[in-house]
Write a structure and sequence with these properties.
heterodimer; A: alpha+beta; Uridine Diphospho-n-acetylenolpyruvylglucosamine Reductase, domain 2; Uridine Diphospho-n-acetylenolpyruvylglucosamine Reductase, domain 3; Enolase-like, domain 1; 3 domains; four-stranded antiparallel sheet; B: alpha+beta; Aldehyde Oxidoreductase, domain 4; Aldehyde Oxidoreductase, domain 3; seven-stranded mixed sheet; 20 helices; 28% helix; globular; binds flavin-adenine dinucleotide
Chain lengths: 293, 805
């Protein structure tokens, strides 16, 4: 229930933050909204000597969109801001919807999108659509910056390719193809405060005939140690005309790729069924939407 | 409608609910102005503003913080050694306590007390307390816990009642119960076998219920202050039974009750979970006595889960026989209950499951075989509607199924068999008043049940169920026939009107109800009444908050306490007005002749005269429940627990749930609930509706979402609100509460009965029946999880495909 004693540091500029993170290394933890970190600290699952709060650094937050170039979302942007942003809703609806389904109102107003990724929980809400939308992360330190596709940044359960001294500062989302649609869905026992037992997102585009699938990126959450980018579903779908039979093949493929576990939230059997049923639901929903654009 | 302006009483005066046709107002005992008013609860504003003081909000000078070390290694183990020396040596630690220092056993039911404050020799469930510390602050106390070294020798953990009985020859949980059976009892009324033989329709089913816990928001918190100079102990604690706590504190600490004072601050919910003492209370008291300083112990949420005394999981077999004319003739009931580690309310709950089978239908022959079995799990105890909801699930689901067998509507079957006022059940339970049939009629009509049932598209369904609950109990848990509630009313110019009674508001609203009763009985306004409650020293005796007893009990006692005061005021007024005291009426701050309305004076003036002449007016009123026994004359069998279930009167409810089943995820969503309830007079209609709505979502939780999960090794796997899922506001269905506003039990004070537990009874089966209507699958188990639905749908599909081929 009680955290260890730690020193709280609240830098206000990127340079200060990089200096602190670089100097204190593994003795420190970065704090954004704290909705994951503080819980872990109270349970004594982590007991850092220093906590570096990066919320006061304005360069790390906010949503910027430039037509044709895409969007950047600062790491400390609140989940609620992503949820309610009109431009996110318009251009990346899968992300806006996923954000709206994270936790409850209070959590969404505290938690950040960077924290959700850096927490690297397999059931995390926003990494799944971010990966489907082709997001890259920008990892910054005193030495400079590097970019990485999000699916390469998250390497496992609570594991990141984050080097000592680095901070995740923003996400870069490519401009969506004008004819593409993105959708997100999930399964959980209730409609709020829910840790998904399965979630998934798709980025989907049809050829001009409105039948043939031009592009699919299909990502599953909560059924593997990290967001699972399906290889087989695009291989099956791209270049084919959308049909119920085709969807059933995709369903089987997705179920084959997913590696769910049994835990207190759901059994492996149920998760596997959900992968199938939600894949069917999501692809049909995406297809219907793609015909309209 | 939701006004608390006293002018509202003038408005209601002309209304039909206030004036009954054909009854002269001066003779109408139902002509209430304060009872039946929708007023916000007396503590509502303070709670909303965050100003209500809960136990954990309190600090005293020099106060220490206590914490309990828990066994997180095993669910069943011998304690070989406890070494506290390192903890004691930690700066800031004032005292350490181990079980052997407080060996007196406690428990709510005296003849089955088997808990100690901290485990001695053996732990019997995961998370049981083994030592406690008091330290200068919580951080130090927590650090001290880590320094306590405990050596265990693991024992096999028995996690299922059947396994527990089968393996009793090799593993025993309590030495006192070598068969691992905590309690068993048989109740045989009538000739069940003969009746079945004559029945046209007979059905037998097996049912299973889950292990929900209470989900109160405020964790247990206790602050104890022992004064070494006079040997007195004062405990402030979040508890719903200060009297039983008081008694048990005295037994454990060996301090006489007269030197212990229990005060209950604001309570953040109880639902039965605070319906007995809790180890933090004892530990705080004993650590305070050891250190000479006040000590506070507040639980973390995980501790609430480990020590929770939630609903008994039940494995039930029920057989129902109905004759060719549609009358229920016999019920055979067999219940194996999962007691968990300690006795708690176990024997009471067990016998309730037997007696609850007898209502709300007329059943001449009933047989119950009951057993409650120890396991190495959190102890089961009292939880809202205890003993009722499990057999209610079985019976209401089976009647739904049997109606289908018979080709009639479940509504018709239930109407035909519903009890009526004045009914005496086979076990001698007496129902002085019921509007159950009108509950069924009203809910069916308002929901268009008959038009929808069996006719909705696949995936949508509607289900009906009824139920009832006691309005108090007949007996104390220790043998004694004293009054169960005593009320003292005090009236004078200085203090106005004060009502004293150690009844405990845990959110259900007795503080408000007792103020309304007092206002009504004394002829003043609700706003005039000061309530002095929840304290064993400054307020008078009350047995506690359980069994939905307080409306009936406090109402009766208030009425009696008001009599001598009213008599005195009438005598004073009679002299002044020049008329007979027995022809005067006191109402709405006026004293007037029932025949000559011009003869009137203000109540306040009469009080002024009384105060100046005879001094403060005081009235005392008691409530003692009627005594009834279970009968054992029919078969000559000994009827065990025969008096459990007897109650002065009963509340009734009918619920109709409409659900949608997502056939892809298996999720069930309750979309709409239509309820009609008979609670007698709704004392505070606004609060009563809240109780009913709360009841419905409460058991919707345990029907669809809530279940404690215990791992194969006995570990508690979801001791937090993240993984123990209660419905959120997002899951709230639309609710249509149609309380029968004109229901009035002439045997009850102001006509009022219970509602806080009756309305939880129909929820499990109403949802289960609605799910059947939606997807054609009957579940005999709650909670119904998405996974269960999906599996059942899959099996159904495969079976249907198999049939087609
Ligand atoms: C009641 C409750 C419900 C929840 N429900 C959900 C849910 O439904 N779905 C879901 O996905 N999550 C849920 N969460 C988890 C959590 O709210 C989210 O993961 C949230 O987005 C975390 O963001 P944060 O800013 O609070 O992270 P923090 O707790 O501040 O940080 C999380 C981790 O990331 C690190 N970190 C944070 N920012 C950076 C950065 N910029 N660079 C490097 N490292 C960083 C921190 O050191 C820490 O290890 C819930 C949490 C709670 C308490």
């Amino acid at each position: 229930m009680y955290t260890n004693e730690f020193e709280y540091l609240a830098p206000t500029t990127p340079a200060e933050a990089f200096e602190l993170v670089g100097r204190l290394g593994s003795k420190a933890r970065i704090l954004a909204g704290g909705t994951d970190l503080v819980v872990l600290m109270k349970d004594k699952l982590t007991s850092p000597e220093y906590v570096i709060d990066i919320k006061n650094i304005k360069e790390f937050k906010g949503i910027k969109y430039e037509l044709g170039k895409g969007m950047t979302i600062g790491a400390t942007t609140k989940i609620s801001e992503v949820q309610y942003s009109e431009i996110v809703q318009e251009k990346y609806p899968a992300l806006a919807y996923a954000a709206s389904q994270l936790g409850g109102t209070q959590v969404r107003h505290m938690g950040t999108i960077g924290g959700n990724t850096c927490n690297a929980s397999p059931s995390g809400e926003t990494p799944t659509p971010l990966v489907a939308l082709g997001a890259k992360v920008v990892l910054s330190s005193a030495a400079g910056e590097r970019e990485l596709p999000l699916e390469d940044f998250i390497t496992g359960v609570r594991r990141l390719d984050l080097k000592e001294g680095e901070i995740l500062t923003r996400f870069i989302l490519p401009e969506p193809s004008p004819k593409s649609v993105s959708r997100y869905t999930y399964a959980g026992a209730r409609d709020a405060m829910e840790i998904d037992c399965v979630n998934m997102a798709v980025n989907f585009e049809l050829e001009d005939d409105k039948e043939t699938i031009k592009y699919v990126k299909f990502v599953l959450g909560s059924v593997f140690i990290k967001p699972l980018v399906s290889k087989e579903v695009p291989a099956l779908l791209i270049g084919q005309k959308f049909s119920d039979a085709l969807v059933e093949k995709a369903v089987a493929a997705a179920q084959g790729e997913a590696k769910p576990i049994s835990d207190v939230r759901a059994s492996e059997w149920y998760r596997n069924e959900m992968v199938g049923n939600l894949t069917r639901r999501l692809l049909k929903e995406a297809f219907a939407a793609a015909r309209e654009v | 409608m939701q006004t608390w302006d006293k002018r509202e009483t003038e408005v209601t005066e002309g209304k039909s609910s206030y004036v009954r046709e054909g009854v002269p107002s001066y003779l109408d005992e139902r002509r209430h102005s304060q009872v039946g008013r929708s007023v916000p609860k007396v503590d509502a504003a303070a709670k909303v503003r965050g100003e209500a003081v809960y136990a954990d909000d309190m600090t005293l000078p020099n106060m220490l913080y206590g914490k309990i070390k828990r066994c997180k290694e095993y669910a069943h183990a011998k304690i070989k050694k406890i070494d506290c020396s390192k903890a004691l040596a930690l700066p800031g630690v004032f005292a350490v306590l181990t079980g052997d220092e407080a060996p007196n056993k406690w428990g709510i039911v005296p003849h089955s007390c088997n808990e100690t404050v901290l485990a001695i020799d053996k732990v019997r469930f995961y998370g049981e307390g083994v030592a406690a510390v008091a330290a200068i602050d919580e951080e130090t106390a927590e650090a001290a816990l880590d320094l306590i070294e405990v050596e265990y020798e693991p024992l096999p953990a028995l996690l299922d009642p059947f396994e527990s009985m089968a393996r009793a020859n090799e593993v025993v949980i309590h030495e006192t119960n070598p068969d691992n059976i905590a309690f068993h009892g048989n109740q045989i009324y009538g000739d069940v076998d003969k009746a079945f033989a004559e029945c046209e329709y007979v059905l037998e089913r097996e049912f299973k219920t889950g292990m929900p816990q209470h989900g109160f928001i405020e964790p247990q918190s206790a602050l104890a202050s022992f004064d070494p100079h006079n040997g007195r102990l004062h405990l402030w604690s979040s508890n719903q039974v200060p009297h039983y706590l008081h008694r048990q504190l005295s037994i454990v600490t060996e301090i006489p009750m007269s030197k212990i004072r229990v005060t209950i601050p604001t309570v953040g919910g109880g639902f039965g979970g605070k319906g007995e003492a809790c180890p933090n209370e004892f530990a705080a008291c004993i650590l305070s006595r050891k250190t000479g300083r006040p000590v506070k112990i507040t639980y973390e949420r995980s501790e609430v889960f480990f020590t929770s005394k939630g609903r008994h999981p039940c494995h039930m077999k029920m057989k129902i026989g109905i004759d060719k004319d549609g009358y229920i003739q016999a019920v055979d009931f067999d219940n194996t209950m999962d007691k968990g580690a300690y006795a708690s309310w176990g024997v009471v709950v067990m016998f309730y499951t037997g007696s609850m089978v007898h209502l709300p239908y007329k059943i001449p022959n009933v047989r119950s075989y009951l057993r409650n079995v120890y396991t190495n799990k959190p102890s089961s105890g009292a939880l809202r509607g205890l003993g009722g909801v499990q057999p209610r699930l079985a019976m209401e689901v089976m009647l739904d199924e049997m109606a289908e067998m018979m080709g009639i509507s479940p509504y018709e079957l239930k109407m035909k068999n519903a009890v009526v006022s004045g009914y005496t059940a086979a076990n001698n339970m007496y129902v002085p008043h019921t509007e159950y049939k009108r509950c069924l009629e009203t809910a069916v009509e308002k929901s268009s049940y008959l038009e929808k049932h069996g006719k909705l598209p696949f995936g949508k369904g509607i289900g009906l169920a009824g139920g009832n609950y006691i309005s108090g109990t007949a007996y104390t848990l220790y043998q004694n026939y004293k009054p169960h509630t005593t009320v003292v009313l005090r009236v004078d110019t200085e203090g106005g009107v004060t009502v004293q009674c150690a009844c405990t508001d845990i959110g259900q609203g007795v503080d408000t109800v007792i103020a309304q009763f007092t206002a009504e009985a004394l002829g003043v306004y609700f706003e005039d009444v000061h309530v002095v409650v929840r304290d064993t020293e400054t307020a008078t005796f009350d047995l506690g908050t359980f069994a939905s007893r307080l409306t009936y009990a406090t109402g009766t006692a208030v009425k009696a306490a008001a009599e001598p005061i009213n008599q005195k005021l009438k005598e004073i007024a009679g002299q002044k007005l020049g008329c007979r005291a027995d022809q005067l009426i006191i109402k709405d701050h006026k004293i007037y002749s029932m025949y000559e309305t011009k003869k009137t004076m203000s109540w306040d003036e009469a009080v002024d005269i009384a105060t100046s002449t005879v001094g403060t007016l005081v009235g005392v009123g008691h409530f003692s429940p009627p005594r009834r026994k279970g009968i054992d004359i029919v078969t000559g069998n000994r009827i065990q627990g025969g008096n459990i279930g007897h109650s002065p009167t009963f509340g009734f409810s009918c619920q109709i749930h409409e659900v949608e089943v997502d056939v892809e995820t298996g999720r069930i969503r309750v979309k709409k609930v239509t309820e009609a309830g008979d609670m007698g007079t709704p004392v505070n209609p606004m609060a009563a509706d809240g109780q009913v709505e709360g009841s419905i979502v409460y058991n919707m939780g345990a029907a669809l979402y809530e279940d404690q999960v215990i791992g194969a090794d006995g570990r508690h796997l979801n001791p937090n609100f993240h993984d123990y899922k209660m419905p959120t506001s997002m899951e709230m269905p639309d609710m249509f509460i149609n309380t029968l506003k004109d229901s009035y039990d002439p045997t009850a004070p102001f006509g009022a009965k219970e509602t806080g537990e009756g309305a939880v009874q129909p929820t499990f089966p109403a949802i289960t029946n609605a799910v059947y209507d939606a997807i054609g699958i009957r579940f005999y188990q709650v909670p119904i999880t998405p996974e269960m639905v999906l599996r059942a749908l899959k099996e159904k599909k495969e079976k249907e495909a198999g049939c087609g081929a």
